[in-house]
């Protein structure tokens, strides 16, 4: 968070579900989740200036989003009575399993809090990922997203995020999920090294990966391509279609990102986001 030229600037880091187990289904149709969530340094950004509520979007993925009143940034601001001109810089592909709208809405709420407003009592009503995105630090996420348990910082990770240029509709992925009562995550230890984390991840799943691949086979292609580029571990995030790979070094990640920047694909090398307290 910084204040520049009278604007409150807040990063909206990409959310990564390093593991995501679907453990049940509520009567209202929402699914119960158990997820290890981390945040990448790459992300969108919001800048708020006091004034009548308005939204303007720029950045490489601006075209994928409307500025109408349904936009999550505006809904977030209205939820707390926020008056601000919001500029959203959309660096992340839209509807791609890495937070997107929820990360942007959470960033707006964080900026409005800095401007003196309270956070809303049930931010998950904006989107299941909003509570964890408000924290924007490693966490275990349970319930339908409203139960967030912060975790100690994770070891340094050399990540590559890849999206094959297709949007996958979250409700369709959940609907295509065969088993909705999978076991929860194993206990989450403190990870000293990246190799401890990848060994733990190998015992976990993203339960939404198989149904997402059934709807969008390009997800399988991305996972195979990450592995072919040398990722020690590769998995889809959220309901897709963005996947992440974990590489041994920053150089290997940069090379893989360059090789995976195929026509129509979005590929970036990134580290984890710095702890919000250290920003
Ligand atoms: O809350 P969000 O907008 O991210 O959710 C999009 C859709 O994904 C919901 O309308 C619902 O169909 C599905 N969903 C779910 N269980 C969750 C989160 C999302 O079934 N925990």
UniProtKB/TrEMBL annotation:
Keywords carried by this UniProt record: ATP-binding, Isoprene biosynthesis, Kinase, Nucleotide-binding, Transferase
Boundaries of every GHMP kinase C-terminal domain copy: 203-262
Q: Does the keyword ATP-binding apply?
A: yes
What does the record give as the reaction this protein catalyses? 4-CDP-2-C-methyl-D-erythritol + ATP = 4-CDP-2-C-methyl-D-erythritol 2-phosphate + ADP + H(+)
Chain positions recorded as ATP binding sites? 93-103
In the Enzyme Commission scheme, what number(s) does this protein have?
2.7.1.148
Cross-referenced SUPFAM superfamilies, in alphabetical order? GHMP Kinase, C-terminal domain (SSF55060), Ribosomal protein S5 domain 2-like (SSF54211)
Residue numbers annotated as active site: 15, 129
**Biological processes per GO annotation:** isopentenyl diphosphate biosynthetic process, methylerythritol 4-phosphate pathway; terpenoid biosynthetic process
Pathway per its UniProt entry is: Isoprenoid biosynthesis; isopentenyl diphosphate biosynthesis via DXP pathway; isopentenyl diphosphate from 1-deoxy-D-xylulose 5-phosphate: step 3/6
Record's keyword annotation contains Nucleotide-binding: yes
Q: Which GO terms describe its molecular function?
A: 4-(cytidine 5'-diphospho)-2-C-methyl-D-erythritol kinase activity; ATP binding
Question: Pfam families attached here?
Answer: GHMP_kinases_C, GHMP_kinases_N
Q: List residues of the GHMP kinase N-terminal domain.
A: 72-121
Q: Which family does it belong to?
A: Belongs to the GHMP kinase family. IspE subfamily.
- Classification via HAMAP family: IspE
Which function does this protein serve?
Catalyzes the phosphorylation of the position 2 hydroxy group of 4-diphosphocytidyl-2C-methyl-D-erythritol.
Put simply, this protein is called 4-diphosphocytidyl-2-C-methyl-D-erythritol kinase
From what organism does this protein derive? Answer: Paracoccus tibetensis
The lineage is: Bacteria, Pseudomonadati, Pseudomonadota, Alphaproteobacteria, Rhodobacterales
User: Could you tell me the gene encoding this protein?
Assistant: ispE
